[in-house]
Amino acid sequence: MSFKATARDIRGITVVDVSGRITLGEGSAMLREMVKDMTGKGQVKIVLNLGDVTYIDSSGIGELVSGFTTVKNHGGELKLLNLTKKVHDLLQITKLYTVFDVHSDESSALGSFRS
Amino acid sequence: MIENNNAIHPATCFLLVPSEAEGPPVPSLCVDFRAAVVLPITGVFLADGCRNRMTSQTKRMDVTLESMMDSVDLAEDIILRIAEASGFDDEERHRIGMAVREGVINAVTYGNHQNREKKVFLTIELDNGRLVIRILDQGDGYVLADVPDPLAEENLLKSSGRGILLMKAFMDEFDVVRGRTGGAEVTLVKKLPAAS
Fold first, then answer.
1. Nearest residue of A to residue B164 by CA position?
2. Could you report the per-residue pLDDT of B34-92, keeping only the tens digit for each?
């Protein structure tokens, strides 16, 4: 299943529902462009809902990290929501689980942003 | 016969053939290419000259891959089929597939710099209860100790550099040496599951 992302705005926070594969090539590049586009528009409170991400490789992890850094450098926050076991395990292995703010439900993610 | 054309046709099938030797059956690979080609492969060589069916002695497959991104998905697909035929469960297949993916990414990107004149040589063997995978590029090689630690504080937020970490995490054994081409040869080993 190829990468897809749809964004919705909830009280000034952009929730992006991501599905498919975030891998080297198409998925990673699309994620990068999407975050760049959002920060360019001033959307710097972002929740990536990864509940339907079926696969992510090191390139995909790299883009999550890049996105995190990009948003932070724009004065915002990028958080992760609904990690599957595979994504969770990858973030644990790479010690990134403690870097990202990870949530298992959307309301908790939305409420966690600095006002 | 693998013929070059522009179609991508997943025509491989893998069967598990028990050994005819005495003792517990040993899984072998049976590879039967019925149609032509998957674009990034430039050649597939089966041991003992076997093309359409492997004997119980045939436990090795060599694949030559182009230095292009399509080869990453292809290599992963090949190893996933072999891992399934070898009896690995879903989680282990995922890990093996990811490890091979990361190895081929490194070979194509960092070893061969996506130079189409260079190839990536993938070897898959069943050897003494182990699945042994070798990925050899035609680059300049590297020393493992020189690779930055992605878990070090100063590297945590880098956007790349995690491939080796993941290969080590997902496989039972990992090694890298200078291969016969002068490039890096990565060896990934996973113990075969116990025969059911």
1. A58
2. 322 333 343 444 333 333 333 344 588 899 999 999 999 999 999 999 999 999 999 99
Which of A3, A59, A65, A89 to probe by mutation at the B interface, max B CB count within 10 Å? A59
3-state class (DSSP) for residue A20? strand
Q: In chain B, what are the domains?
A: 14-191 (3.30.565.10)
B194: confidence class by pLDDT, cuts 50, 70, 90: confident
Rounded CA-CA distance B88/B1 in Å is 29
What six digits make up the tokens of A88? 């969770």
| Cβ contact B157–A68 (<8 Å) | yes
- Which residue does chain B place closest to A67, by CA atoms? B159
Contact between chains at A63 and B160 (C-beta distance less than 8 A): no
- A4-109 has which fold? Transcription Regulator spoIIAA (3.30.750)
pLDDT in tens, B11-28: 233 333 333 333 333 333
Q: What is the pTM of this model?
A: 0.81
- ipTM of the complex in this document: 0.90
> Chain B within 8 Å of A18 (Cβ-Cβ)?
no
